[in-house]
Amino acid sequence: MRICRPLLLSLLCLAAAAAGPARASDFMGPRPGPRAAAPQDGYASAKDALRSGVRNYNAGDKIAAVKALEYAADQGYALASWKLGRMYAEGDGVPRDDLKAFEYFSRIADENADEAPDSPRAGVVASAFVALGTYFLEGIKNSSVVVNPEKAAELYFYAASYFGDPNAQYSLAQLYLNGSGVDRDERQAARWFNLAAEKGHAGAQALLGRMLVNGQGVPRERARGLMWLMLAKEAADPKRDAWIWAMHAEALESASETDRRTATAFLERHQAKRR
Predict the structure, then answer these.
(1) CB 15 within 8 A of CB 144
(2) What is the residue range of the signal peptide feature (predicted)?
(3) 173, 198 contact by CB (below 8 A)
(4) Tens digits of per-residue pLDDT, 36-60?
(5) pTM (2 d.p.)
(6) Does residue 243 lie in a domain region?
(7) How many alpha carbons lie under 13 Å from residue 168 in its C-beta half-sphere?
(8) Range of the domain at 209
(9) Residue 241 lies in a domain
């Protein structure tokens, strides 16, 4: 299932009412071409503005960074829109504003939905689809972006299948595992977890590992499941990802010595293939 442009636009238009009539065009149809650079902007080009924005951000001057990034975003630079979206989503150098973040991510998705999966911008575009999916999954208070897991599933699916994005694959797998926005299907969950796990996504590795250890939706393979949990633990932060460490410890404690040895052998072969 691939999101066609009318469906994509219907998803993005939901925020227009909260943004007001003057900004509804951000979500409707193709955007106008880049504006001519105004002399007072102080940038030689939109690309120069993007570079200035990144440089100012890294130097800690986030006020100047926002100004430069806004200019580059208005000229169609997806990376500038993405960075602004992240800043507003996290309250990083600006007041946290999820609706404003949603607007920037929507702009990226609207203008770049057909970006080639192997293009340099594909990662940024896929990340924007994942962010939009999460906003539809959780909703934005006091706005027209309400909880809608079905739309979240559609956006995750697009980024997971067309772009092959591991974060989208992980998020989609969780929806299948929990039956949120899609029919509950543990086999589909394991499939999407596996795709993300093969790309090094620690959360997907951990949840796939647990499913294999327990035989949940897939044939039970304790040793292979333990291998995935070992990989997940290696990549996980002990504080931020304490749940992965706990899941690994539980599986290791219940594993037989044979399972542990076999899992170690699987792990060595898996790592050797990637050298």
Answers:
(1) yes
(2) 1-24
(3) no
(4) 444 346 788 999 999 999 999 999 9
(5) 0.84
(6) yes
(7) 26
(8) 201-275
(9) yes
